[in-house]
Every structure is written in structure tokens, then in C-alpha cells.
Write a structure and sequence with these properties.
Pfam families: ABC_tran. Involved in beta-(1-->2)glucan export. Transmembrane domains (TMD) form a pore in the inner membrane and the ATP-binding domain (NBD) is responsible for energy generation. This is ABC transporter ATP-binding protein. Belongs to the ABC transporter superfamily. By secondary structure, the protein is an alpha/beta fold. It folds into 2 domains: 169 residues, P-loop containing nucleotide triphosphate hydrolases (Rossmann fold), CATH 3.40.50; 66 residues, no CATH class. Helices cover 39% and strands 25% of the residues. It has 10 helices and 10 strands. A 6-stranded mixed beta sheet has the order 6-7-8-3-9-10. It has a 4-stranded antiparallel beta sheet with strand order 2-1-4-5, covered by helices on one side. A hairpin with a 2-residue loop joins strand 9 and strand 10. Helix 3 packs across helix 4 and helix 3 runs parallel beside helix 5. The longest helix is centred in the last third of the chain and has 18 residues. The relative contact order is 0.16. The mean pLDDT is 91. It binds adenosine-5'-triphosphate. Adenosine-5'-triphosphate binds next to helix 1.
Length: 256
């Protein structure tokens, strides 16, 4: 069991998720602390996206208990669920913008789902979010196919921030970006976390991101959290996967 954290934003206990006979998460425990950027790593196919989707209620669990903002979403009624959902934003893997909608429509999509606002106000929110992620308002009427990979990630982040969330889930936000683009994106996430007081749950394979952006790292393996702590804790671990990951060739290039 992880050390108890006072006032965790996300509290996961003994969670098991299974698809058919395949058990992906197996009695997993995890706490995410208020205001931190938690980097979530582990081998490909280990279940990082599955855990993310389980926390936000898109994947049913076989057993276990999850609270977000102190609310058990399984026990909550529809109104209470929606109230919690409004407090988080999600950037899914590959950016996942709606390809048939413009940047404006993509960013306004979650706002329309939860709030009834005039088009003028929706446009003001959209422009504010674009500026927040470092994009010019004149991209508003472009379609995703007319954007670079880095711009798509930024628009997806703007959409995740559209409802002024306290918590954001980022699933491999820098995948597919070149190292400079990825570095810029990490810096943006760090700046937003500091200025907006966000809590960030970030699935990543990117050692640079773990090193520069994350306050804490949790590692998934065999359906459980096999390590959680600082980068120094990860580097000191004797676990074979951690040794390979945090001391491999790529790690030496990043961390010197
Ligand atoms: N809806 C589903 N139905 C059946 N199996 C699924 C489903 N979703 C995920 N899985 C399986 O669960 C396992 C974990 O997948 P997941 O995408 O969470 O891995 P991951 O750790 O995020 O991997 P990667 O780092 O490659 O993105 C995989 O074997 C995947 O095939």
C-alpha cells in the first residue's frame, strides 16, 4: 500500500480491471496529490491508458474503489458525477481532436456540454484558451488536418482546459513531437500547472518529460504500482524494469 497522502485529488485502492480473461490491473493502489505533476510510466501495454480511463469512468472495474476530489463516482448520482467531471480535463492519446470540427468547435465542445452560454462568450473562452497554450486566435477556423502535430497537441490541451479544470489527464501528450516541440510542450504544462495550480496526471514514455516536468513518478507493472517517488528514487531502484528504463542508453543521454 502507498503511504497515505492527506487530501489526495485521486485516490485509487485495490482496483482490478479485466477484459475477458485478461487481467490488466490487479489490485492497484495509487494516490495523486493536489498540485503535483505525476508522471505515469510502464511498459507498453501495461495498462496506463486503461487506468486513466478507469479513473474517469470510461472503463468499468471488476473491483476496488476510486475517489476523485473525495467523491466515489460509482456511488454518486448523475448530478454529482457531472459536477466532478466538470472539474477535470482530458487530453487523450494522439491528441484526438474531432477531425470534422474546427479548432473553435473542438475547444467549445466540452463547454457546450456543461454550460449554456452565448456564442460571444464561447468565443471569448476559446480565444483565451488558445492564447493560454501559445496559439494565435487566427487558427480558430482551421480544421485539425490543417495543423502541425505540435499545434494539434496545443489545441487538445486548450480543449482540456476549456472548463477551467483543477485536474488534467494527459495521455502521452508529447508522443509524435520532435524533441524541441516536446520540450516546449513540457514547459507549457509546467507553466500552466504553476500559474493555474493544476494537478496533472500524465501518462508518458518520454524521459525528458519525466525529468523536466514531473514532480513525482509512478511506475506500472504486472497490474500494480511497482514504484512511486522522485526521479532519484527511480534511479536508485533495483527493480529490473526500472534499472533498464532509468539507466538505459536513452536515460544516460537525457540525464547525463
Ligand atoms: N477495451 C478493451 N478491450 C480489451 N482489451 C483492452 C481494452 N482496452 C485496453 N485493452 C488491453 O489492455 C492492455 C493495456 O492497454 P493500455 O492501452 O492501457 O496500455 P498502455 O500501458 O497505455 O500502453 P502504451 O504505452 O503502449 O500506450 C492491452 O493489452 C490492451 O490490448
Amino acid at each position: 500500500m502507498p503511504a497515505e497522502v492527506s487530501d489526495p485529488i485521486i485516490h485509487v485502492r485495490d482496483v482490478t480491471v479485466q477484459f475477458g480473461k485478461t487481467r490488466v490491473l490487479d489490485g492497484l493502489d495509487l494516490d495523486v496529490r493536489r498540485g503535483e505533476i505525476l508522471g505515469f510510466v510502464g511498459p507498453s501495454g501495461a495498462g496506463k491508458s486503461v487506468l486513466t480511463r478507469t479513473i474517469i469512468g470510461l472503463v468499468p472495474k471488476l473491483s476496488g474503489h476510486i475517489e476523485v476530489f473525495g467523491v466515489d463516482l460509482d456511488a454518486a448520482d448523475r448530478a454529482a458525477r457531472r459536477a466532478v467531471e466538470r472539474r477535470w480535463g482530458v487530453l487523450f492519446q494522439q491528441g484526438a481532436l474531432f477531425s470534422s470540427l474546427t479548432v473553435r468547435q473542438n475547444i467549445q465542445f466540452p463547454v457546450r456540454e456543461y454550460l449554456k452560454l452565448s456564442q460571444r462568450l464561447l468565443d471569448e473562452i476559446m480565444v483565451a484558451k488558445l492564447v493560454m497554450v501559445g496559439l494565435r486566435p487566427d487558427v480558430a477556423d482551421r480544421f485539425p488536418s490543417e495543423l502541425s502535430g505540435g499545434m494539434i497537441k496545443r489545441v487538445a490541451l486548450a480543449r482540456a482546459l476549456a472548463l477551467d479544470p483543477e485536474l488534467v489527464f494527459l495521455d502521452e501528450p508529447t508522443s509524435g513531437l520532435d524533441p524541441i516541440g516536446a520540450g516546449d510542450f513540457d514547459e507549457l504544462v509546467r507553466t500552466l500547472q504553476r500559474t493555474l495550480g493544476l494537478t496533472v496526471f500524465m501518462v508518458t514514455h518520454d524521459l525528458d518529460s519525466l525529468y523536466t516536468a514531473c514532480d513525482r513518478i509512478a511506475v506500472l507493472g504486472d497490474g500494480k504500482i511497482i514504484a512511486a517517488g522522485s526521479m532519484a528514487d527511480m534511479q536508485a531502484s533495483e527493480h529490473p524494469w526500472l534499472r533498464q528504463y532509468f539507466h538505459g542508453k536513452r536515460a544516460r543521454a537525457v540525464m547525463g
